[in-house]
Amino acid sequence: MKLLFQYAWIIPLLPCLGSIIIGVGLLSFRRGSRSLRYLSSLSSIGLMSISMILSFLILIEEISNNIAYKYLWPWIITDNLNIEIGYLIDPLSSVMLVLVTTVAVTVMIYSDGYMSHDQGYIRFFCYLGLFTASMLGLILSPNLIQVYAFWELIGMCSYLLIGFWFTRPVAASACQKAFVTNRVGDFGLLLGILGFYWLTNSFEFDTIQDRLYQLINNNSINLTFTIICAILLFLGPIAKSAQFPLHIWLPDAMEGPTPISALIHAATMVAAGIFLVARLFPIFEMLPLMLDIIAWIGAITAILGASLAIAQPDLKRSLAYSTMSQLGYMMLALGIGSYEAGIFHLITHAYSKALLFLASGSVIHGMEPVVGYNPNKSQDMTWMGGMRQHMPITGITFLIGTLSLCGIPPFACFWSKDIILSETWNHSPILGIIAWSTAGLTGFYMFRMYLLTFEGDFRGSIILKENSLDSLIITNKKLNQNENSLKDSKNKKTSLYPKESTKNMVIPLMILMIPTITIGCLELPFDIGIIKSHVLSNWLIGSSNLEFETEFDWLEFLSTAAISVAIASIGISSALILYSPKSLSKRNVNELLNPIPKNTFSNFIKNFYNWSINRAYIDKFYEITCVQWTNNLSNFTSFMDKWILDAIVNGAGVFTLLSGESLRYGEVGQISSYILVILISITTLICFGIVIGNLIII
């Protein structure tokens, strides 16, 4: 099987090759490419499927041997610099390859149905293939140079996909926001890479780890400078994985097509940051202060994301803040030293969140024929309700994803979240309280989304009917029409209902439902038949050099699981009380999403809802401090350039022009005139000199 590892570079090459072929065809033969649109999608799905099969084969072989394989080729060789390129296969990279390719294949199949009527169908598959190839290249990177190259490719592809519908100003603004925010983190990542190269004279992961270990043991390194370099290195994952305070781009990224939202949130862009921290974990582990920073950033992100998801009216943005919160859990796990728990939650969350996003896309796809192709309506949960009756498969799959993310057994995220909660509490009670609180909020906002979207009566047609009747009454008054016309308008059939999505959108939901239910078996704390306990942890130990305790305490497991489920159940019960169909029927549209009970806490709840809807005012803070300051600086620079620098240059030109024009009239060709001018000039200079001399003497 060594031959298999030697050709592992084919895995990212295949989707990249498909993207290049589609892109060249689209640019060179636009009409011909459009006529072969389904062939383009079929080739993309086929090439990605081959990459997925190769990834599974590598995973199976890696499980059997548990040995890291590295293949390098020289790239830049000088007296002072030696840079090699290649790829690295170890337990972490092999499991990530399977994760990314499986999610990508399901997203591509789903996209064939979701984007079928879009004019940019072929362009979308071109971007999608390049995006996935960039993530696969990042996973296989053996050094920081390749990591940075693929890191930037991921950022470029996200810019293209978030702004896919660039004719909409909101989408164009969202992709720019994501691009600029990530540039801040990427600049820090670049400085951190250069800093560690200055410290260790290497870009290779294992070499940096070994040399840094020696330098720290010998006390021959400035720890303050090393921690600064590590923080700069960590800035990249902070931005890419939407961690506080560089999380602001993630909700706006929902302006892109829903399939790309699923891929970004499940297996590519935001997962890239977690993967890089996991890859660099042996380096961060040598710096305890750095691990504390990672843990606290993760904890703040987790509780903040959950708090902001509570009041959002937009279905996709609520899921986006959910992703932010779960990424905080992963970063928290890595920060407290629970490497396996962080990776395990990355895996379970990826399948659950891909299922949720694709199910939400199915809902949006069903809403659009009813309320129109307007994201403000088709994604607004105010217009939804009762979708389970009209879209049963979508409703069931969304419910399964919801139960998983809430941490309800036996679904996938229960097993990973339970480990994180337990180990966080053992590490620090303060961090534990934050993690437990986040679990309760997760149960609340996830079931809020489910109940508002799928239970009760469908509100879209009712709101549309009320709006249409109001507009008809106004029109009737203006045009002085008789009452019969209004009666006829009322008798028309205005109530429409969404329908279940097509097979190529529903089948991926059913496929993703399987790992959402079963993938937790990778880390069961006890043996069940042929399934051994802690399979993933025992396998990852070889790449993380961590010790793992194999003894199992039933009492500790049951008590932790009971507390975890109880806290999630409190959140779920609160959502059932506030957002049950019976409760919703008693409220008007304005209080539908965020009810404010009339009690002593009403002002606090109202202020909290406003704080949550306004994204904790963090975006406004950046608007005032960064955006306005940058605009003012740009305006000042423009003023200086236009009225000072340009004025000097233009003034010199105008002076030369005017002086030249004035002197031109003195050029008459008569010697006597020239002699007269010379005499007058000499006389003037002599008089001027005499006056100056007298003034000096005085």
TrEMBL record:
<keyword id="KW-0934">Plastid</keyword>
<keyword id="KW-1278">Translocase</keyword>
<dbReference type="GO" id="GO:0009535">
    <property type="term" value="C:chloroplast thylakoid membrane"/>
</dbReference>
<dbReference type="GO" id="GO:0008137">
    <property type="term" value="F:NADH dehydrogenase (ubiquinone) activity"/>
</dbReference>
<dbReference type="GO" id="GO:0003954">
    <property type="term" value="F:NADH dehydrogenase activity"/>
</dbReference>
<dbReference type="GO" id="GO:0048038">
    <property type="term" value="F:quinone binding"/>
</dbReference>
<feature type="transmembrane region" description="Helical">
    <location>
        <begin position="327"/>
        <end position="348"/>
    </location>
</feature>
<feature type="transmembrane region" description="Helical">
    <location>
        <begin position="147"/>
        <end position="167"/>
    </location>
</feature>
<keyword id="KW-0521">NADP</keyword>
<dbReference type="Pfam" id="PF00662">
    <property type="entry name" value="Proton_antipo_N"/>
</dbReference>
<feature type="transmembrane region" description="Helical">
    <location>
        <begin position="643"/>
        <end position="659"/>
    </location>
</feature>
<feature type="transmembrane region" description="Helical">
    <location>
        <begin position="122"/>
        <end position="141"/>
    </location>
</feature>
<dbReference type="Pfam" id="PF00361">
    <property type="entry name" value="Proton_antipo_M"/>
</dbReference>
<feature type="transmembrane region" description="Helical">
    <location>
        <begin position="557"/>
        <end position="579"/>
    </location>
</feature>
<keyword id="KW-0618">Plastoquinone</keyword>
<keyword id="KW-0520">NAD</keyword>
<feature type="transmembrane region" description="Helical">
    <location>
        <begin position="6"/>
        <end position="27"/>
    </location>
</feature>
<feature type="transmembrane region" description="Helical">
    <location>
        <begin position="671"/>
        <end position="697"/>
    </location>
</feature>
<feature type="transmembrane region" description="Helical">
    <location>
        <begin position="393"/>
        <end position="417"/>
    </location>
</feature>
<dbReference type="InterPro" id="IPR001750">
    <property type="entry name" value="ND/Mrp_TM"/>
</dbReference>
<dbReference type="InterPro" id="IPR002128">
    <property type="entry name" value="NADH_UbQ_OxRdtase_chlpt_su5_C"/>
</dbReference>
<feature type="transmembrane region" description="Helical">
    <location>
        <begin position="220"/>
        <end position="239"/>
    </location>
</feature>
<dbReference type="GO" id="GO:0042773">
    <property type="term" value="P:ATP synthesis coupled electron transport"/>
</dbReference>
<feature type="domain" description="NADH-Ubiquinone oxidoreductase (complex I) chain 5 N-terminal">
    <location>
        <begin position="75"/>
        <end position="125"/>
    </location>
</feature>
<feature type="transmembrane region" description="Helical">
    <location>
        <begin position="39"/>
        <end position="60"/>
    </location>
</feature>
<keyword id="KW-0472">Membrane</keyword>
<comment type="similarity">
    <text>Belongs to the complex I subunit 5 family.</text>
</comment>
<keyword id="KW-0150">Chloroplast</keyword>
<feature type="domain" description="NADH:quinone oxidoreductase/Mrp antiporter transmembrane">
    <location>
        <begin position="141"/>
        <end position="441"/>
    </location>
</feature>
<feature type="transmembrane region" description="Helical">
    <location>
        <begin position="179"/>
        <end position="200"/>
    </location>
</feature>
<feature type="transmembrane region" description="Helical">
    <location>
        <begin position="92"/>
        <end position="110"/>
    </location>
</feature>
<feature type="transmembrane region" description="Helical">
    <location>
        <begin position="505"/>
        <end position="526"/>
    </location>
</feature>
<comment type="subunit">
    <text>NDH is composed of at least 16 different subunits, 5 of which are encoded in the nucleus.</text>
</comment>
<keyword id="KW-0813">Transport</keyword>
<dbReference type="InterPro" id="IPR003945">
    <property type="entry name" value="NU5C-like"/>
</dbReference>
<dbReference type="InterPro" id="IPR018393">
    <property type="entry name" value="NADHpl_OxRdtase_5_subgr"/>
</dbReference>
<comment type="function">
    <text>NDH shuttles electrons from NAD(P)H:plastoquinone, via FMN and iron-sulfur (Fe-S) centers, to quinones in the photosynthetic chain and possibly in a chloroplast respiratory chain. The immediate electron acceptor for the enzyme in this species is believed to be plastoquinone. Couples the redox reaction to proton translocation, and thus conserves the redox energy in a proton gradient.</text>
</comment>
<keyword id="KW-0874">Quinone</keyword>
<feature type="transmembrane region" description="Helical">
    <location>
        <begin position="429"/>
        <end position="451"/>
    </location>
</feature>
<dbReference type="GO" id="GO:0015990">
    <property type="term" value="P:electron transport coupled proton transport"/>
</dbReference>
<feature type="domain" description="NADH:ubiquinone/plastoquinone oxidoreductase chloroplast chain 5 C-terminal">
    <location>
        <begin position="482"/>
        <end position="641"/>
    </location>
</feature>
<keyword id="KW-0793">Thylakoid</keyword>
